[in-house]
Amino acid sequence: MTSVLLHHFDPSPFSEKVRLLLGHCDLAWGSVRIPRMMPKPHFTALTGGYRKTPALQMGRDIYCDTALIVRVIERLSGKSTLVPPGQAASVRALEEMGDRLFLAAIPILFRPEGRAVLVDQLGEEGLARFQADRAELFSGGNVSRPDDQFSRAVWTSTLEMLDAQLAHQPFVLGEHPTLADFSLYHPIWYVRNNPGVRGITQDYPHLMAWFERLGAIGHGRRHDASEAQAHEIAAACDHWQPLADEFDDSLNMAPGDEVTVGAVDYGVDRVHGRLVHISREALTLEREATFEGRVLGPVRLHFPRDGFTLSPASSF
């Protein structure tokens, strides 16, 4: 099997979701650390301008957005228990709850106690650059940067529900962890990673016991790889990863068409390339990757269909 590389940075909550899932699935993976803020020149050379973290690389195939990455990991591991057929709808609903909980977590980190920790970590100038970077990330999409009012409406009620659900079972949907657990873990990890606001999670004993059980899984068989090595791996690869399902022609587009793909929520930078495949769950396009004048060769970018739009390049 082609080696798995995860492009991420340590404090990234969505990266933590994937890191923990890689540990749970016992997959060996290369840790490619990328910058926390733009510019990310090595990363965007591969992704064609897509900037959200993390991305998963297998040879010269790049999988973007956590929603797709976790399903790639599920297939690689063969763990059907991650999305049990009889609980697929529940898993999907709880994934969406995890996304809302992540948005609710953001303002918590900028409450005075949390902000003080961020200043210690980044400095006032660094924090200002970080906030400007994230303001740009949330510009142009259909999801606005969340405010403290949203956080207060969502955070406590969600944690109360989860604590009650975990009172009589070790994991959110029963005796074994599913993708729902990993989707709900990382927003809580994000808040607990900031000592200034960590206490906001403490009044939920069943939830905290669950959090410790999941955290104990760890990140598995991880080794370090550089961004330059990731480029070399893409350039040297001589094959593509298999594509799932038949081509869906319902969008009236064909392989080889010049297209753009972009997220609809936030981080909406559009990526240009040649359409390769449209499956039930993914959009795949191909583009020539270059870095500082060096041709790395063609790469394929895979995006989830849900949450992304595909358009003819001529419309932009």
Structure characterization notes:
With 316 residues, the chain is of the alpha/beta class. The protein folds into two domains: 4-79 and 222-315, Glutaredoxin, CATH 3.40.30.110; 84-215, Glutathione S-transferase Yfyf (Class Pi), Chain A, domain 2, CATH 1.20.1050.10. It has helices at residues 13-24, 41-47, 66-77, 88-109, 112-137, 148-165, 179-192, 205-215, 227-236; strands spanning 4-8, 29-33, 55-58, 61-64, 222-225, 258-263, 271-278, 282-291, 294-304, 308-312. The protein has a ten-stranded mixed beta sheet with strand order 5-2-1-3-4-9-8-7-6-10. Strand 1 (4-8), helix 1 (13-24) and strand 2 form a beta-alpha-beta unit. Helix 4 crosses helix 6 (148-165) and helix 6 (148-165) crosses helix 8 (205-215).
Level of helix content?
Answer: 40-55%
The end-to-end span amounts to 38 Å
**Widest β-sheet, arrangement of strands:** 5-2-1-3-4-9-8-7-6-10
From the alpha carbons, calculate the radius of gyration and give it in angstroms. 20 Å
Percent of residues in beta strands: 15-25%
Total beta-strand segments = 10
Largest sheet: 10 strands, mixed
Q: What is the name of the CATH architecture of the largest domain? A: 3-Layer(aba) Sandwich
Q: What is the H/E string?
A: EHEHEEHHHHHHEHEEEEE
Coarse shape: globular
Quick check: average pLDDT? Answer: 96
Low-confidence stretches: none
Structural class: alpha/beta
Total count of domains:
2
Class of the largest domain in CATH?
A: Alpha Beta
Helical segment count = 9
The CATH topology assignment of the largest domain is: Glutaredoxin
